[in-house]
């Protein structure tokens, strides 16, 4: 509701909100899963044991470096990026906020994080490495792992699953897909790109329309299907027919959609950063589990590699990716979560 000083406004608002809540009822354990670290000192003042599960740092060193370099991105609009003075003001604001964020975050008795990328940032900001545990988030892989690995390649289908938000970088996917079509061998079937997402508001609707216009401009509108706000059963059906899944968000802290691709049997093509790079698309039993890409050409090359891949090789990679996805199951999360919090519960009970 307020486009400027959003982080500090939400953080101070959370302090007031938590104070009101804790005055009404003071628990023994204060468990935060929404990332409002500024509430931790308040909870400790009330005598609570503070436990958190952090999906994404409120501010990261990457965000600070982008503002310093005057790069226009989702956390730094073009108006500020074009101005040296405004950029320096925002750098100072970010530095002060990161210092405050480090102080309040260090009040956690136990900080669970969802990925190696998040862990590295939280360790640098909060400076409590002994109290930080990496617990991968729960992914509903069981219902996807029953899908057959064999897929029809007439035509091969590539799926993209995410909300229609600016940080998801959908235009890059369309541009890479257009390049792949231009370089497609004449004897190979023409692939289809299925873009699946949800629209929360008018801004998302406008972004979706922009993607439709871009597909038309790139002359691939006959090869791209847009699916908005589909049900879970429809999503499973789409995943079950996809040969590959594409993901393009820079510094995605984890990447649940990438795990869903792998569990369903769709070979992932994900951005070469953060969660997909550090935790998800890693070899399994010595076998490759997917592709990492950064530039438009790298994405296009990965699409063509999957389409050109012999069926036995594709099935082998899809099977390895599915085995990798088991590491991020709901059962694994439950076991790791309980193991992490058990020392806090045991120590308090004594």
Describe the structure.
It is built from 14 helices and 10 strands. The radius of gyration is 22 Å and the shape is globular. The model has no long low-confidence stretch (mean pLDDT 92). With 350 residues, it is of the alpha/beta class. It folds into 2 domains: 11-136 and 331-349, no CATH class; 157-328, Rossmann fold. The strands form 2 sheets. Strands 7-6-5-8-9-10 form a 6-stranded parallel β-sheet, with helices on both faces. Strands 1-2-3-4 form a 4-stranded parallel β-sheet, sandwiched between helices. It comes from Abeliophyllum distichum. Its EC number is 2.4.1.131. It is found in: Endoplasmic reticulum membrane.
Rg, rounded, reads 22 Å
The quaternary structure here is: single chain
Strand tally is 10
What is the first-to-last residue Cα distance? Answer: 46 Å
CATH superfamily of the largest domain: Glycogen Phosphorylase B
Q: What is the CATH level 1 assignment of the largest domain? A: Alpha Beta
Strand order, sheet with most strands: 7-6-5-8-9-10
Helicity level: 40-55%
User: Kindly state the mean pLDDT as a whole number?
Assistant: 92
What is the correct CATH architecture of the largest domain?
3-Layer(aba) Sandwich
Biggest beta sheet summary: 6 strands, parallel
**Annotation field: number of helices:** 14
Q: What general outline do the C-alpha atoms trace?
A: globular
Residue runs with pLDDT of under 50 for 5 or more positions: none
Number of domains: 2
CATH topology of the largest domain: Rossmann fold
